Amino acid sequence: MTETPAVRRTQSESPWEETIGFARAVAAGDRVLVSGTMPLIGGLVRGEGSPYDQTLLAFRNALAALEPFGLGVESVIRTRMYLSHVRDVDDVGRAHRELFGAVRPAATMVVVAGFTDSRVLVEVELEAYRDASREASQEPLPLQGESA
C-alpha cells in the first residue's frame, strides 16, 4: 500500500479490500473518507432481513474505521446510505437519526439495484473532519472489526 506523509490509509479484515484493491479509510488533509461498508461481522452478513439493524451495524463498522484517527461520531460531516429497496427508507432513516441526530451531517440516501451479497439491504459511507496538523506525526494503526 502506497503511503505519503500527507495521506494515511487503514485496512480492516475485509477480504474485499485486498481483492478489489482499496483502503477501508483514507485520511487526506482535514478529511477522513470511509469506503462503502456493509453489515458484516466475522465475514458474515448480520441483521438479515432487517434494514434497521443492518444500517446500525454498517455505520458502527464505518465509525470503527475512524478510531485509528482519534475520531468518532461527532466528527462525521457527511453520510451516504445505499439501499436495495425503497420500502426500507423509513427504517434506514430511523437508524441514521439515532446515530447522527445530534451531529446532523450532510446525508444522501440512494436506492440501488443490489449489492455483492443479496442478503445485504444497506451499505454506507461516511466522511469526517479532523485537525490534520495533530495527526501528521502518527503512524497508521490496524483496524478492529470487519467491514466490506
Overview of the molecule:
This protein is an alpha+beta fold and 148 residues long. Helix content is 25%, strand content 28%. The chain has four helices and eight strands; from the N terminus they run βαββββαβαββα. It has a six-stranded mixed β-sheet with strand order 1-2-3-8-6-7, covered by helices on one side. Strands 4-5 form a two-stranded antiparallel ribbon. A hairpin with a 2-residue loop joins β4 (40-41) and β5. α2 packs parallel to α3. The two termini are 18 Å apart.
Give the N-to-C terminal Cα separation: 18 Å
Gyration radius from CA atoms, angstroms: 15 Å
Helical content class? 25-40%
Rough outline: globular
Instruction: List segments where confidence is low: pLDDT < 50 over at least 5 consecutive residues.
Output: 141-147
Look at the helices and sheets and give the structural class.
alpha+beta
Main beta sheet:
6 strands, mixed
Tell me the strand order in the biggest sheet: 1-2-3-8-6-7
Estimate the strand proportion.
Answer: 25-35%
Helix count from the secondary structure assignment: 4
Mean pLDDT: 87
